Amino acid sequence: MKILYLAHRIPFPPDKGDKLRAFRQIEHLSKHHEVTLACFVDDPADREHIDALREYCDEVVAIDLNPTVAKVRGIWGLLRGETLTEAYYRSPEMLREVSRLSRGNRFHAAIAFSSSMAPYLKRARVRHRVMDYCDCDSQKWLAYAKAASFPMRNVYRTEGKRLGKRERAWASTFDATILITDAEAKSLRNYVAKDRLHVVGNGVPLPAVNNETTTHPPTVGFVGVMDYRPNVDAVRWFVQRCWPGIREAVPDAVFVIVGRSPSASVRQLAKVPGVEVTGAVPEIGPVLNRIDVSVAPMRIARGLQNKVLEAMASSKPVVMTPIAEEGLSGESGHEYLVSKSAETLIRDVRRLLRDPDECRRLGEAARLHVAKHHCWEDVLARFELIVTGEVRRSAPVAIASNVQAAWATPLDPPLTKGGRKNKPGFVTRYN
Quick one: 219-373 is in which CATH superfamily? Predict the structure, then answer.
């Protein structure tokens, strides 16, 4: 089957949430279908990764997007009554390429990743159109509005309301619409036919079990892209509201903030006693090994948090705020802990740092839960059925082998090896 995949950002390397989900989808589809990718490139450094996608795609069309120009275009669009999102990603070149690629109805299906690409999916001449919103971006803008002050509060609220209307209108025209959690799907249930609305979560690879013991001070950790607003807000709030109470009870405790592109406000946190800001690290494994307790103190969040899944897959006990629990099917106290206030978060982290046995119990339960409910193979098998239009034929996938593998080796093959190699038809477009 020939499939056209539309992405708002080049899905490689898969080092952040949206890129990881998109890449895994492309990687999986390429094993059984011919995939053509059309995407934007918003970071010049990412151009060197375009060639890696040839292992998975028959043709790659990469169109350069200048973020500064796009921001001006987005603001102007918002002032003219449009959505900032549509104006930001408006590209005559992308529109021409989508028209060219889908001319003659050569594709059975087209997939668009995120609301940014919905206008292009509408223009694709294909038999089956699938929209993966992942999260409803409109709800994220509205969440930003609640945390912002004037005048940005009004800007975010306006974008959220306008984009919400567009998301509902777009979804009503597509053959299938995918959301990452039931909570995200709820906002579209009154506008999309039941058999066209689907929930497909994220998966996570299980790293090999590490039985090595290391000597280090009691360590709390947070892993994420550190110029992403929800992550910045989370660690700043945690350091300001929770960290003093934790250090009071555990004076030698360390809070390590791991992730590339830390903002200036995040780098400032390194001045607080016991706080480390690492920036990007060559390998996440050694860092995770030294973390005793992972925290996800999110106050702004949508959908399923990859940082939570990754920590659980690594057998780390996770303490999170209620908003970070969205999309998880576990239960607080069994596979993780949910803290509803700064005071309870302080109490939970203190208790875990003082109780290695409880840390070990929660970590083991977390890993087994991920193996059972968030295996990439299961997630992507359902995704493929939706893309091919065969979702009604889907059957439960056996998980016993995944649970057994939770204590053996990683479930996923290395990212550097694709299903196809040396493909022709590589195209680069810049505007």
Answer: Glycogen Phosphorylase B; (3.40.50.2000)
